[in-house]
Write a structure and sequence with these properties.
With 670 residues, chain A is mainly α. Chain A is built from 23 helices and 5 strands. Among the domains of chain A are: 281 residues, no CATH class; 44 residues, no CATH class; 46 residues, no CATH class. In chain A, the strands form 2 sheets. In chain A, strands 1-2 form a two-stranded antiparallel sheet. Chain D has a domain of 211 residues. Helices cover 79% and strands 1% of the residues of chain D. Chain D is globular. Classes of the chains: A mainly alpha (670), B mainly alpha (232), C mainly alpha (317), D mainly alpha (486).
Chain lengths: 670, 232, 317, 486
């Protein structure tokens, strides 16, 4: 049936290649902002839109297509495949990249450390490599795309390479990415199952013993977890995301993290075929831990991009929670529920792509306008930057998980799927998993806290620095980019039924089942047996009607007189910006309540200090407790080995001699 | 065990040439031990020359016994290179560079000797499977060849002077040559020539080296050459 | 849709709008009585609101549009919530729009806007109030969600009318977990509505106040809407409590005139009792230091989680 | 036949010619011209093999089969590009007064001689000649390592000489044992008993006990030249202290050829032993080398030393892969040899320029290359990323195959490999990044770097990562078949 249609896979391939071409075209005039920045990025955005459209079309078609390219290894040319799962993530890529590219077209300046042409190349290679990851149907193509993605994004992260911290961030990023990639590679090594065919088709057909299969699953989880920022493999994320230019942070957070989710879904449901239920407990537990860890750390950050980065960790945690839940359900023969949990994961991936990209772009505009990332030096920007403030508010509310925006929908779906966890026919597990719902609820509420802090400190209140008075709103292209993403947030929030039905082919592909969808186009009712429903449009209309009616009535019966005066503040005389809560202050309750999560380093002034200074630094216990000791061990081991290489030729001869004698002895013994 | 077996054979029906050959082998081993214990570099060179001479004698013996023409050539080469040229060159170098004594070796002499004996036992054990298979008259000498090689190795490890290390290296070459001789009556001619050429060039290069080292450090003591290391 | 349900829906909202200040007045009256003071009129909240509507609005110079919109949004969300919660009848048109989880989301929306508005002017008290409100929020919200979660597990749905219908039908077979979540819910209700022991609605003492601190910059009609919204919030919470714990008397199926006329007096009765109970709790407990508030709410959260465990352990099978 | 005479004759002539005129101003060009001639001959030879298949020449003393032909082509190619690179590089060294005209003559002459030994070692069918050529390779380069006559270079040269000399002596003993075993089967004519093709034909009849011992000697001998831990100690010193072009050819060619010798031996021994003992030894040496090199990488301060250790690591990986046996792993190992050789020499080119610009080989002194000279900076960065196994470069392709194979065949080795690769990555990348990126006080140097070799190599490595031409793939397959069995 697909053969008769003109085919979306070649179209996708062409679009991905077009990205590459755009990137290379950037080298033609590498120094020209107008050419490489303004023009090519807009073209790239159009390609992204086309890709999103193709993906939607393919998703609706619901069929699977594959092809083979004449490049790659001799026995392993690049295999490509477009199926509902990859279509869904291509849609995510295209939709988010469109907004980010438009924004970038207006964002990149000449002074950003790297020539615009090079940026353009790396940026579009990054996009194209993500496309390749999503289209790949063999391990080699997948890994090439995967590592290329890491590499190109590394260069983007280190755009401002003259700053030592940014270099350090780039280093740890690429290191973790590489180690993770090795783990994934090894997982593929298991998955090929002795057939030495590294195509995904062969892996689907391979039969693995339970131990091997579990090994592959866990390796894949480690690899993809490292890319996604799953605790304790998250350490690179809060360093790299803030270091990157904002549009890149947006792509990293919004899109690249999702490729890890894609990979995990691909391996667990597609390549392994029949995940065992207890496998799901690992991502479930890790996801819950990650979510809580991320959001708690987000709440105490003072750098706006770090805050968002930690919030990304939280959301990744939620994604893996949903994924784990889906595996548990699927493994215990409850495919319909697995489909529900999977739906929550997919939906949240889309949501997070839209809202986190939006927020990172918003911080980019703020950064350009003020030169500040530190929350302690921002404030009151809603007056100077109304566009950015307005559009960012949408993202903020969405990320806080408030109805009727999109963040709430996926949260709702996730909680709904948790509601069935007590039916899992495994003793004790049915008791433990519902507790996960409590963690999810806590994280969702904390996310609200974080977002109020984020928005309130940056945009509301009084400017904390006098220089902020010169802040300017963003350019037109940036507005368009932000607007596109905000519109996505709204659309995803208000039309859940449509999104769910579009995602149904994916859940059907992976679990063989699908969530039921009620007949009403405005009503999301995935579990008909339970008569639960959510209709954001109705909801919004009712709310809007009430508000409108209130405004109308108030004006009708009373008046609309307004006087302006100095803030009252309980009659306190002078109101200065320094009297507002700082970012540290806003995080104080969280610091107290979740004290055990942090390694806090405080510097408190004594009462007699002439110039009192209060400083607080919050460190990651995992970094201090796991990574630093490992580095220490390796260094000590290196010292030992280096001691053997001591410069004396007699010793070296002795090594040769000993080796010879040892090997001879071995041979004699056998 | 090998020595006792050999002795038994000596008493019985071993032909003279083979007895002579075994004597050569024993001599070689003895010379190796002598080199291991010798601290005077001039004497070391002399011992090396003697070792070369014994080697040449053994080669001639084998050549006479088997009638293989190329072995005569080999013997001639050995005499020219290892008895005449190399010792001459080394003596010249010693005189030019004024290095007559090695300093105290890294391992004291008696310990070195003890280790040497262990090595000889090991080498004989090692040679067992080869000896069993060899059809040559000289097969019992294979173990000795291995021992000579390993003893030269040991000597290189324990010495502190560049010069004595080189002598150890050449002694090792001798052991190898003897091994080839006793196991297979020598290698094909092309190879033999190549090996000889290599040894020659090696010694020439070494000579150049000595002058360079001497020029740089005013001594040939190896402790100058222990800077490049991974220790900090 | 037939006109019947829409009329019923409108009626429910109207009742909520009207009854909310009255309920607040009733609670205050009870408290005064219990404290042996002369009680103000039950209608005082109405008078206050009316007075405020008449006044000129005074805005801080640096207030942003967000500050002016917020009261309408907060008020609007509370009204919509009132339309969703089955206070009088079950199957009303708005009910399908949101289940209990969405309801929690709705409350969160109101809270976020309230806090953002409080931060807008940039005064010390505003931000302080916002921070404390969010702190209480992030602890109370999951507790409330857990309460609803347990109820949902019991009744296998998250739609509030269905939950209350299910609970109402389960006559006298009390699920032990309900006791736990009942306690949790009460604690959340107290915290979320700025009651003692977390907050004192009657004080403007800077160091202890939460809710009032956020409203300091508001005046006139904006303040009126905010006050009305908080009255509505209390009312909504009370009605959620009724739906979960005293689910009788709600017109589950029949939303005709008869069912409604029956359920209005029942609701009034429940409100009266609840107001009295609330006043008693507030009178006998002392205001907590703000640092203790997290412990208070954490215990609410833990009670709810315990309820969950008890349910899965005992009731689930 | 003629092509082979040219292949070996070109460098031989070059060595003679340059020993007379190697100090002239145009000597670098002459050097490059001879290398070009060699490369052309290699191309002709390769195309003949494509056309006619394997070939025995000159009374079977020399042969061309799929295994060595691609190494010949590779060697000639890297020889050519290194000659091109050394043109500006050595000029600058001479201009800085680091080398006198006499030494320049020695350098050029020995360079060609080294190429001759390499090509001889590759093309000879005679295991004895192979040994001679390997020893010749040491001798021709040892004086090049000490070209600068600094104390360090003398020390490095001495260690190189002694350790490799002793090592190779063991290989000679191994060869003797091999001959001894072969003589039994092939007769004592002494003509054919050392010819690899003949040995290969009768390998199953060779005496296993002798061959096992022979293999130990050969492995220790040639393994010293491969730089397998713990025999590797000479390698970093020699690489770091010699002139950069020599580091490039040592790393890119000598190690390959030594490994080639090991593998030739392994084929014979494994055929005789019918056991996996040789493979297990290779696996052990490979793993140990990877681990030791990775740990020592952590402590490097000298840029060339750093990449010398990286060579040990990669040779270890290739050895490991040969040890895994089987067509896939062997294919991967051959590919790894190729791409490592190309990448590493490219890195040495870039590192040489970088050190020249900074006036020091210490990495702490090399900063902000991207500002000083973007092309050198990018060359070094891309080269380092390539050698670290990031796609789409070819090293990734081979590591992909090696790791996936190891995962199935020797899963116990995986944690070790993984940890070592991670440590190596951190060590190298952590060093390269601040050299390429960051601020610098240095000024741009007037002379233009020789970038064609760097980017030509990287381009080929990139190509091999994405597309291996069919004839090359066929060679690899045929070679893998030859070595690893079906």
């Amino acid at each position: 049936m697909i053969a008769s249609l003109s085919s979306p896979l070649p179209d996708c391939l062409a679009l991905v290649t077009a990205w590459l071409a755009i990137g290379i075209a950037g080298l033609a005039r590498p120094r020209s902002v107008r050419y490489a920045g303004r023009t090519l990025f807009v073209v790239g955005a159009l390609v992204a839109l086309a890709l999103a459209a193709t993906a939607v079309w393919s998703l609706i078609g619901g069929a699977t297509q594959s092809m083979v390219l004449p490049i790659g290894l001799p026995d392993l040319p690049f295999h490509l495949r477009l199926d509902p799962l990859s279509s869904a993530f291509l849609l995510l890529l295209g939709a988010a990249a469109a907004g980010v590219s438009l924004f970038s077209a207006g964002y990149f300046r000449d002074s950003d450390g790297m020539a615009p042409g090079l940026l353009c190349l790396q940026y579009h290679v990054f996009l194209a490599s993500m496309g390749l990851v999503l289209l790949a149907n063999d391990a080699y193509a997948y890994m090439v795309g995967w590592e290329l993605m890491a590499l190109s994004s590394y260069f983007l992260v280190t755009t401002q390479h003259r700053i030592a911290e940014i270099r350090a961030a780039g280093f740890i990023y690429l290191l973790m990415a590489h180690v993770g990639a090795l783990a994934i590679l090894l997982a593929f090594g298991i998955l090929q199952g002795g057939s030495w065919q590294f195509t995904f088709d062969a892996m689907r057909a391979a039969h693995l013993s339970p131990a091997w299969a579990a090994g592959a699953f866990l390796l894949a989880l480690a690899g993809f977890g490292a890319k996604a920022g799953l605790v304790p493999l998250h350490v690179w994320l809060p360093e790299a995301h803030p270091a990157a230019p904002s549009p890149v942070s947006a792509l990293l957070s919004g899109v690249m993290l999702k490729t890890a989710v894609y990979g995990m879904l691909r391996v667990a449901f597609d390549l392994l075929g029949h995940p065992v239920w207890w496998w799901g407990l690992v991502p479930l537990a890790a996801g819950l831990l990650t979510a809580l860890y991320g959001v708690v750390f987000a709440a105490v950050q003072t750098d706006m991009k770090r805050l968002l980065a930690y919030s990304s960790i939280e959301n990744v945690g939620l994604l893996f929670t949903g994924l784990g839940l889906a595996i548990v359900f699927y493994g215990t023969s409850m495919p319909a529920l697995a489909a529900l949990a999977l739906l929550a994961t997919l939906y949240h991936s889309l949501n997070h792509a839209a809202m986190k990209s939006l927020l990172f772009l918003g911080t980019g505009s703020v950064l350009h306008a003020t030169g500040q990332r530190n929350l302690g030096r921002l404030g009151g920007l809603i007056h100077r930057m109304p566009w950015v403030a307005g559009l960012t508010l949408v993202g903020t509310l969405a990320l806080a998980g408030l109805p009727p925006l999109n963040g709430f929908v996926s949260e709702w779906l996730l909680l709904q799927s948790f509601l069935f966890a007590d039916q899992i026919p495994r003793a004790f597990v049915d008791l433990l998993i519902p507790l996960g719902a409590a963690v999810v609820a806590l994280c969702a509420a904390l996310a609200g806290y974080v977002m109020v802090k984020f928005y309130g400190v940056i945009f509301l209140g009084q400017p904390r620095e006098s220089s902020l008075a010169h802040a300017h709103d963003c350019s037109l292209l940036e507005r368009v980019g932000l607007g596109w993403l905000a519109a996505l947030c709204l659309a995803l929030g208000l039309a859940p039924a449509q999104v769910v039905s579009a995602l149904t082919p994916v859940t059907r592909q992976l679990t063989g089942s699908a969530t039921a969808q009620g007949a009403s186009w405005w009503l999301l009712a995935p579990v008909p047996a339970r008569a639960v429903s959510y209709a954001p449009l109705l909801f919004l209309l009712a709310g809007a009607a009430v508000v409108a009616l209130t405004v109308l009535l108030v004006r009708l019966f009373y008046h609309r007189r307004v006087r302006h005066a100095r803030p009252w503040d309980c009659g306190f005389g002078e109101v200065s910006p320094r009297m507002q809560d700082t970012a540290e202050g806003f995080g104080q309750p969280i610091r107290n309540i979740f004290q055990s999560f942090f390694a806090i380093e405080r510097e408190l002034p004594t009462p007699f200090d002439a110039a009192p200074r209060y400083r607080i630094a919050i460190h990651d216990r995992i970094w201090l407790g796991i990574y630093q000791p490992i580095a220490g061990w390796v260094r000590r081991l290196a010292d030992v080995v280096a001691g053997l290489q001591q410069g004396r030729i007699a010793a070296y001869l002795l090594y040769s001699f000993a080796t010879l004698v040892l090997l001879l002895a071995v041979v004699l013994a056998t | 065990m090998s020595s006792s077996a050999a002795r038994e054979k000596v008493v019985t029906d071993i032909p003279l040439d083979q007895q002579l050959l075994n004597a050569c082998a024993a001599l070689l081993l003895l010379l190796s031990f002598a080199m291991l214990s010798q601290r005077r570099i001039v004497s070391l060179v002399s011992l090396l020359a003697v070792q070369g001479a014994v080697l040449a004698a053994a080669t001639l013996l084998i050549a006479w016994r088997t009638g293989e023409g190329h072995l005569y050539f080999s013997a001639a080469l050995t005499i020219a290179l290892k008895v005449a040229f190399l010792p001459w060159l080394l003596h010249r170098l010693i005189r030019r560079l004024q290095v007559y004594w090695d300093t105290e070796p890294l391992l004291n002499i008696s310990a070195t000797m003890l280790t040497g004996i262990v090595i000889v036992v090991f080498a004989f054990g090692l040679a067992q499977p080869i000896t069993h298979l060899a059809s040559t008259a000289t097969r019992d000498a294979i173990g000795i060849a291995v021992a000579v090689v390993l003893l030269a190795f040991l000597m290189m490890i324990t010495r502190r002077k560049a010069m004595s290390q080189v002598i150890g290296f050449l002694s090792m070459e001798n052991g190898l040559f003897f091994g080839a001789m006793s196991a297979t009556y020598g290698m094909p001619m092309v190879v033999e020539l190549g090996v000889a050429l290599d040894v020659l060039v090696a010694v020439l290069v070494l000579g150049v080296f000595f002058f360079q080292i001497r020029e740089q450090f005013d001594s040939l003591d190896l402790h100058h050459l222990e800077r490049l290391s991974e220790r900090r | 849709m037939r006109p019947g349900p829409i009329v019923a829906q409108a009626l429910e909202i109207a009742v909520a709008l009207a009854a909310a200040p009255l309920f607040l007045g009733w609670v205050n009256q009870c408290r005064a009585w219990l404290a042996n003071r002369g009680a103000p009129s039950m209608l005082l909240p109405y008078r206050n609101i009316r007075k405020l509507f008449h006044k000129d609005a005074v805005l801080a110079e640096n207030a942003s549009p967000l500050f002016r919109i917020a009261p309408y949004i907060v008020f609007g969300t509370m009204v919509v919530a009132a339309g969703i919660i089955p206070s009088l009848a079950g199957r009303l048109p708005l009910v399908v729009a949101a289940d209990a989880i969405a309801l929690v989301g709705l409350f969160a929306t109101a809270r976020v806007f309230l806090s953002l508005a409080a931060m807008d002017v940039g005064t010390a008290f505003g931000t302080l109030g916002a921070r404390r409100e969010m702190m209480i929020g992030f602890l109370a919200e999951p507790a409330l969600l857990m309460v609803i979660f347990v109820a949902s597990l019991i009744s296998a749905t998250t739609a509030l009318p269905a939950i209350s219908a299910h609970l109402a039908s389960e006559r006298f077979t009390i699920d032990p977990s309900l006791a736990f979540i009942g306690v949790a819910f009460t604690l959340v209700l107290l915290a979320e509505n700025a009651r003692i022991p977390i907050d004192n609605p009657a004080t403007h003492l800077e160091l202890t106040m939460i809710h009032e601190a956020m409203l300091l910059e508001y005046s006139a009609r904006h303040l009126a809407l905010m006050e009305w919204a908080s009255a509505l919030r209390l009312f909504n919470y009370a009605c959620i409590g009724f739906a979960l714990f005293v689910p009788w008397g709600i017109a589950a199926r029949d939303i005709g005139p008869f069912g409604l006329t029956l359920s209005i007096p029942v609701l009034a009765l429940k409100l009266a009792a609840a107001g009295g109970g609330l006043a008693v709790i507030e009178t006998v407990s002392a205001k907590l230091r703000i640092m203790r508030a997290p412990e208070f709410l954490a215990s609410a959260f833990l009670f709810a989680v315990l309820g969950l465990l008890v349910h899965v352990l005992l009731g689930g099978a | 036949m003629i092509a082979l005479s040219f292949l070996l004759g070109m460098p031989a002539m070059g060595a003679i010619v340059l020993s007379y005129c190697g100090a002239r101003r145009e000597a670098p060009e002459i050097n490059a011209a001879f290398s070009l001639g060699t490369f052309a001959a290699a191309c002709v030879l390769a195309s003949r093999v494509v056309g006619h298949g394997a070939d025995l020449l000159w009374r079977e003393e020399f042969f061309i089969d799929p295994f060595n032909v691609f190494l010949v082509a590779l060697t000639a190619f890297v020889g050519l590009t290194t000659a091109l690179f050394s043109r500006p590089y050595m000029r600058v060294e001479a201009a800085h007064g680091k080398v006198s005209p006499g030494r320049l003559r020695l350098y050029h002459s020995m360079y060609q001689l080294f190429m001759l030994t390499m090509l001889t070692a590759l093309t000879t069918n005679n295991m004895g000649l192979l040994w001679v050529a390997m020893e010749g390779a040491t001798l021709s380069t040892v004086l090049l390592v000490t070209l600068y006559r600094t104390p360090q270079s003398l020390e490095a040269g001495w260690k190189y000489f002694i350790l490799c000399g002793v090592g190779i002596a063991q290989a000679l003993f191994g060869t003797i044992l091999l001959y001894f075993a072969a003589e039994k089967v092939l007769g004592a004519q002494g003509v054919t008993a050392l010819l690899w093709t003949h040995l290969d034909a009768v390998k199953s009849q060779l005496e296993p006990a002798v061959l096992a011992l022979a293999f130990v000697f050969l492995l220790v001998g040639y393994g010293t030249k491969v730089g397998l831990a713990p025999l590797h100690s000479w390698l970093p010193d020699a690489h770091a202290e010699g002139p950069t072009p020599i580091s490039a050819v040592l790393s890119g060619l000598l190690l390959n050829v030594a490994l080639y010798a090991v593998v030739r031996c392994k084929v014979l021994v494994e055929g005789s032993l019918h056991s996996t003992l040789p493979s297990r030894m290779l696996i052990g040496f490979g793993l140990l080398s990877v681990v030791v090199a990775a740990l020592l990488l952590m402590r490097q301060r000298d840029i060339k030393r750093l990449f010398a250790y990286s060579s040990i690591e990669h040779m270890g990986l290739a050895t490991f892969a040969f040890g895994l046996s089987g067509p896939v792993a062997t294919f991967a190992a051959l590919l790894h040899m190729t791409v490592h050789s190309l990448t590493k020499s490219a890195i040495f080119f870039a590192a040489g320029h970088a050190a020249q610009k900074a006036g020091s080989q210490l990495m702490d002194r090399i900063r902000g290359l991207l500002t000083l000279s973007p092309t050198v900076g990018w060359g070094l960065m891309l080269g380092a990323l390539a050698i670290l196994g990031l796609p789409p470069f070819g090293v990734f392709a081979s590591e992909f195959l090696i790791l996936t194979t190891a995962m199935r065949e020797q899963p116990w080795s995986i944690p070790i490999l993984l940890a070592a690769l991670a440590v190596a990555f951190a060590a190298i990348f952590g060093r390269v990044q601040p050299m390429v990126f960051g601020e610098t006080e240095g000024r741009r140097l007037p002379h233009a770097p020789a970038l064609l070799p760097v980017f030509a190599h990287l381009a080929i490595v990139l190509l091999l990562g994405l597309y291996i031409p069919p004839y090359l793939a066929d060679w690899y397959r045929a070679a893998a078949h030859l070595i690893g069995g079906p």
